[in-house]
Write a structure and sequence with these properties.
This protein is an alpha/beta fold. The protein has two domains: 5-246 and 450-470, Aldehyde Dehydrogenase, Chain A, domain 1, CATH 3.40.605.10; 250-430, Aldehyde Dehydrogenase, Chain A, domain 2 (3-Layer(aba) Sandwich). Helix content is 39%, strand content 23%. The strands form seven sheets. It has a seven-stranded mixed beta sheet with strand order 14-17-18-13-12-20-21, with helices on both faces. Strands 9-8-7-10-11 form a five-stranded parallel beta sheet, with helices on both faces. Strand 5 (122-124) and strand 6 form a beta hairpin. Helix 3 runs parallel beside helix 4 and helix 8 (260-272) crosses helix 9. The radius of gyration is 24 Å and the shape is globular. It starts with a strand and ends in a 12-residue tail after the last strand. The structure holds NADP nicotinamide-adenine-dinucleotide phosphate (NAP).
Length: 485
């Protein structure tokens, strides 16, 4: 089946007349053909979003919220179908794709509520008979560029706040998961949004993304993806509002004297959930030396029970594509060359001769400065580093360029608060894994993980609104601030 772009309320073929395939990573079979769009398509979509902007901006926010409720209701109805489509196109296991759709439902619900808040604040003026307040205004045309690992939730995390704030949208999904994006767009279409408010253009980052970033009619770019592309966008975008949600090199710290079974479960979920392809994946584990051996034995025993295969039946699904398999395999070689010890896994696998599978892999005796402990692998590979005490563990945790999520298993209050206060991340978990964000809290990171924006929660509204200061003088005379006579 050939899928089209959604521009100005219509499903349109690309000006390029070309298409590309998206593959099921478990079977290597195509799931559909998609428009290989070019600059002309993007320009059309931006023009339609620009035209629709005044209509959408001027609609009262509680009215806009009604569309978000409809989208949320439709997502609830379609949850199981969407989750299965996501297994087919992205590969992760069904219980996780259900979670992905649920996150989209949650964010539309949360942001619909914002329609009756979108708070500014009032304050006192320094002059008499003058009133001061702030209001939130939309930014304008927003371009959203997303990755493939949460192909429903991440777009939803951007679309819902952008819409409620009164912006219009051009959305470019990853070329690895365009079908999920089309299915989401169909649901958005069903809500009856005025034409042009939401537009979808498929195609590569180079052909589609570049025009989005540089087009002068675009006022904001919200990007989730790799650090490399994030940096490129920042350089090219010029004076636009840019939100970057980039990679991670997240860590779980395991203190002595903890419930080791609980910690092992946390590492299994954090390191191998979504086959390690989460920005918040636990790719490093820093373990207290007293319990390292016991922890490793328990971890390996548990990993041996994990079944690799189709996301519909197995515990661990495939990687997204062949490039990802090669990347994981290359880090296994690097890990061995660097002198760490392979405790489990390390090989690419096929099932019935097909699929981009990779064994859950554990390295131990790793040193923080090793490449496998510094670079984002984005595969099912976890590196264990020993620490002699929790002060050292906290330092190791911070010894990376990224700063998204960290976790600590501990019974000691001081250790927990040291990780909260000294950990250089945007998210910290105490006694659970590095993953598990909830939509009413801000999501994002520090250092190489982003440029200070946060998604979801009230902070998600900041990314898609401009704060205006309003001074209302009812004195009937010219009053000057700063005491000027
Ligand atoms: P990616 O290669 O950076 O791609 C992300 C998006 O950018 C895709 O839609 C891609 O399009 C597009 N793109 C590529 N080149 C571009 C260009 N020159 N200009 C504009 N857009 C361009 O990342 P990915 O492999 O899809 O996703 C994995 C990365 O995302 C990891 O680093 C992960 O940590 C990060 N991530 C971060 C978060 C977070 O919230 N912090 C969440 C999830 C994932 P095409 O691929 O279609 O060409």
């Amino acid at each position: 089946m050939v899928y089209k772009n959604y521009i100005n309320g219509k499903w349109l073929s690309s000006d390029s007349k070309k298409t590309f395939d998206s593959l099921n990573p478990a079977t290597e079979q195509g799931v559909g053909k998609f428009q290989k769009s070019d600059k002309i398509d993007v320009k059309k979509a931006i023009k339609s979003a620009k035209k629709a902007f005044p209509v959408w901006r001027d609609m009262p926010a509680p009215e806009r919220a009604k569309y978000l409720w409809k989208i949320r209701d439709c997502l609830i109805k379609e949850k199981e179908r969407l989750a299965k489509i996501e297994v087919k196109e992205m590969g992760k296991v069904l219980k996780e794709t259900r979670g992905d759709v649920q996150e989209a439902i949650d964010i539309f619900e949360y942001m619909a509520g914002e329609g009756r808040r979108l708070f500014g604040y009032t304050t006192k003026s320094e002059l008499p008979d003058k009133f001061a307040m702030t209001v939130r205004n939309p930014v304008g045309v927003c371009c959203l560029i997303t990755p493939w690992n949460f192909p429903i939730a991440i777009p939803a995390w951007k679309i819902a706040p952008a819409l409620i704030c009164g912006n219009t949208i051009v959305f470019k999904p990853s070329s690895d998961t365009p079908l999920c994006a089309i299915e989401l767009a169909k649901i958005i279409e069903k809500s009856g949004l005025p034409k042009g408010v939401f537009n979808l253009v498929t195609g590569s980052g180079k052909d589609v993304g570049d025009e989005m970033i540089t087009n002068p009619d675009v006022r904001a770019i919200s990007f989730t993806g790799s650090k490399k592309i994030g940096e490129l966008i920042l350089k090219k975008a010029g004076i636009k509002k840019v939100g970057l949600e980039l990679g991670g090199k997240n860590v779980i710290i395991v203190d002595k004297d903890v419930d080791l079974e609980l910690a092992v479960e946390g590492v299994i979920w954090g390191a191998f959930g979504t086959t390690g392809q989460r920005c918040t994946a636990s790719s490093r584990v820093v373990v207290h030396k007293n319990i390292k051996k016991k922890f490793e034995d328990m971890l390996v025993k548990r990993v041996r029970k994990l079944k690799l295969g189709s996301g519909l039946t197995a515990d661990i699904g495939p990687l997204i594509n062949e490039t990802a398999v090669k990347k994981s395999a290359s880090y296994v070689s690097i890990g061995k060359e660097e002198g760490s010890r392979l405790l489990h896994g390390g090989k690419a696998r096929k099932i019935k001769g097909k699929g981009y599978f990779f064994e859950p892999t554990i390295f131990t005796n790793c040193k923080s400065e090793m490449k496998i402990c510094q670079e984002e692998i984005f595969g099912p590979i976890v590196s264990i580093i020993e620490a002699k005490n929790m002060d050292e563990a906290t330092k190791i945790a911070n010894d990376v360029d990224y700063g998204l999520s960290n976790a600590v298993y501990t019974r000691d209050m001081k250790t927990a608060f040291d990780v909260i206060n000294k950990g250089e991340t945007g998210i910290t978990y105490i006694n659970s894994s590095t993953i598990g964000a909830e939509v009413h809290l801000p999501f994002g990171g520090v250092k190489g993980t982003g440029n200070g924006t946060r998604e979801a929660g009230i902070e998600g509204i900041n990314e898609f609104s401009e704060t205006k200061a309003v001074y209302f003088d009812y004195s009937g005379k010219l009053q000057k601030a700063q005491g000027i006579e």
